[in-house]
Amino acid sequence: MVADWKARFGHPLLLLETFVDPERFYGGVYRAANWVDLGLTQGYRRIRKGYSAEASTPKRMFIRPLCRDARTQLIRGNPHPFHHPGGPKIMLNAEQMRLLPECFKRIPDPRRAQGRRHPLSAVLGIAAGATLCGMRGYKAIAEWAKALGQAARERFGCRRENGRYVVPSESIIRDCLIRVEPGTLDRALNLWNQAWGEHDQALALDGKTMKNALDENGNQAHIMSVIGHESKRCYAQKKWAPCQ
Q: Is the pTM of this model over 0.85?
């Protein structure tokens, strides 16, 4: 399992945790499997707007380290780079989830009307939300979408089917992202960034030559990007190739 986790997410799995209701179970299976009993939680339970005001349902917490120095790796002051694999990660709140699809509603849908099962704004909103939360690649975005609860799916504007909200599949997400014009997508994302993104004190210009990316004249394409120092987000990109 540890090897599978690292292959899938790109960083090792250090520790497992689980919770047992002491009013119904003793946790004997976990004790027999050498899980560590950390005692009872404070007892607050999840509700629609956060957590309950009263502590009424404490759970017994068990953990199982998967390597000898798991505790050291988790509490050390200078964490290993695998704790920050890629771009910034955030936890989207309800208002942010609702605003993301709104940013994409003015983008023309490049798909044929026949067979459209999911609104384009919902597909792009989910893809953007998953990316903001650290997902990379179509498969990771699709799995993040599948893990969304019904309330979150409703906020993203997902299609309702048989009384439940359904999310787009990996193939639909890929198809929409490939077909949408990059410039319009970039402008829509900037709307969300203006409302929720961090404010940068300075910007950096970064240029790259795209390997094997040739135009119709055989010239290599160059990409110029503007990156925020604090937020690490891309404000704009411009493709350029020398003229003959």
A: no
